[in-house]
Amino acid sequence: MSGTTTGAVGLRRRAAGAGANRWVVLVVLCASLLLVAVDATVLHVAVPAVTEDLKPSAIELLWIVDVYPLVCASLLILFGTLGDRVGRRRVLLLGYTLFGVASAMAAVADTAQVLIAARALLGVGGAMIMPATLSILRQVFPDRRERAVAIGVWSAVAAVGAAVGPLLGGFLLEHFWWGSVFLVNIPLMLVSLPVGRILLPESTGAGDGPWDVVGALMAAAGLFGVVLGVKRLGGGEPADSAFTVVPLVLGAALLVLFVRRQRRRKHPLIDLRMFARPAFSTSVGCIVLAMLALVGLELIAAQYLQLVLGLSPLETGLRLLPLTVAAMAAGLLGARMLRRFGPRRMVSAGFCLTAFAVVLLTAMGRHDNPGLLLAGFVLLGFGLETTLFGAYESMLSEAPPEQAGGAAAIGETSYQLGAGIGIALLGSVMNAAYTPGLTSVPGVPASASAAAGHSLGEAYAVADRLGGTAGEALRRAARDCFVHGLHVTLLVSAGLLLMGAAMALRLPRLMHCEVGEVEVPAPREAARPLPTHARP
To answer: What is an example of a Pfam family matching this protein (predicted)?
Structure first.
């Protein structure tokens, strides 16, 4: 064999090895994401056991549940931009370490205060891990076609994690104590740390100028205030309460000052010029609107299944499972759909499909209709994931590689803010449509009607205390009012989704690849086979 031939074979082998390593890196990153996604929901089923063992107050129980997403959302920009400066792998590995230590601390917590502190540290670790996974993915897959496939797998894993959390928590609680839902993280972290150190590449941004510590703290404090205020609104707290208004106002003021500071700095923490790019700003807006329209519906749907239809928690989880399976399928098919239809048509069609599913679900009534729920949840999951996939991919591809950490943090923060605002907004719509129908139920005292207007669960409790025909009348009226409120909320959500479909028309029509790559045609041209070198 000649030297030239031998050299060519070696180059091909090295190229193949590099390609294989990229997908191994994707596996490591997805394992990280799965852990964080599971931990966000695994505690929900353990709340009764935690309450019985630690006997927290109502405020302490609220913080045990909410402190993890609150801290995580607040610190995403801080750690995303820090990774751009000091190294994304370094921040990710530090997040692994902190996540493992906090998990051990939570598992052995003997007081509510210790558990709250441990959950806060878990939020810090999650904020290190989440943007780092996306920004490393952005660097490892420079080819947009391959990156689209990777993001599809990444988003499918996120859907799996959200669904696995309650199931895993329920299994562990049946066989072990409540701390086991945290203890399961430790062996995964012990494996992820050395594997990540060996396999994950290090990458940073341009690193020009000093890191804006003051700006990072302003962003963290501002987001903490805004997310805390939004969560209180979503939890049914009064809108005029000082504990709701003050965090919202201070948080918004800090974020305004943060934006002004970034515009004046020569080397900003986040290059706000990214938002001047229509594809980037539109993608962020689509993420916020999709979550705003839909996250509250999941909570309301769970109440409908359990309180109106009388399903058990396990049966409720099984009814919602098709939504997760459809979301996984959309994530895995996302890259192919993006190549065929382009970002504009894909995201807009995803919004329209989700809106259609939401309108279809308005046919839900007081009686069970499994076929309708199955069809609605499948369309809902597929449409939502199609929308989020197209928006995330467009946002990440539009951001400069040196700003990958900041862009990933912006996307995750948008997701969290949209979810929080959605719970508050749709919860308010639901209450406004539900409460008036209970003011004049025959035979029910005004005080009982007022208490029943807080929620359907409370209405059932009041009806049980009343008993007799009055109690039965209150129960029936509350159920009817809840179904009416659900229909109104679904229609409002559909309107928001159609607004998102219109917004998505600002996205690029084609999937533009990087310099030197082939631009993927729109659907009309997609019938022609791509050149061999352009296929993924």
So the answer is: MFS_1
